[in-house]
Amino acid sequence: MKRVTIHDVARSAGVSRQTVSRALNDKAEIDGGTKQRVLDAARTLGYRPSRFARGLVRQDTVTIGLVIPDLRNPFFTEIAASALEAARARDWHVVVHDTADSPEREIGTLRVIGSQVDAVVGYFSQSEEEIERHVAGLPVVFLGREHRNPRFSSIRIDGEAGIAAAVDHLVAAGHTRIGMLDHNRRNEPSIRQRWFRTAAASAGLVLDPGWILGANQSVDGGALAFEALHAAHPEITALLTFNDIIAIGALRRARQLGLRVPADLALIGFDGLELGALIDPPLTSVAIDTNRLGTLAIEDVARLLAGDRAAAPEDLVVRGALRLRGSA
């Protein structure tokens, strides 16, 4: 697809190239009506100012925008490290943006990177229409999310079999009262909670609605949520968590409350962080291969940049597998 130029915008708005430049850079030399006409034309045409013309990088360098919700979470740090390594092997540059899991910061990030990079990859909560509005014309690869726009692509995370294996492992150990600490970002259950409910039903377990509680995605969030869950439902003998960070917080608080892990409480996280091997006892988890996830993302960006707009290969999925350590 031919790239829209500043000359195309000028011709559509009926102004000079210099006027387009002034309007896009919010200069005071033009009146409001003209500025709005230029902005409308640029939006309609999907124009993005050339990052090369702005001197941001060399013209022969591919730059990827990597959008991460929280670099303090080691899961995302591991993904970023893998993507950087895969990009380095191609002599590409990667610009990493941390949105702090904020929809507002995500919008701000999209506004910035639209004119700075050749392609975008990462985690997004915004609609595809909103993303397209800010990065029109750019290849986009979603991590952990499905896509509808044929210009976009996705690397899926499938933890269903891993969570089923986790539930089966707990049931085999004699646990029937299994709880879960889910995330609390949205007013709906996560896909991981749905996988847990399906696995529990398949194992013949009946879940008390109170056995599932939301938690902030942090060590402190996991600790607070577990304390509340244990106070309300001390009968729970096993616990799955939305991610390893929540699990580590829950494990710490459980031990502070005098519970033995795994004798009194079996605990299984999700992500398989290397950090989980360093705590006592080491954390059992449904492990995601973050190296494969980051590598696949860069490989799919390369496919899109090469002009391959056909449907992505069916194997663009990273599946979770139960990694047994000492906590369950």
Automatic annotation (TrEMBL):
Keywords: DNA-binding, Transcription, Transcription regulation. The keyword Transcription regulation applies. It holds the Pfam family LacI. Signal peptide: none annotated. Residues 4-58 form the HTH lacI-type domain. GO terms for molecular function: DNA-binding transcription factor activity; transcription cis-regulatory region binding. This is LacI family transcriptional regulator.
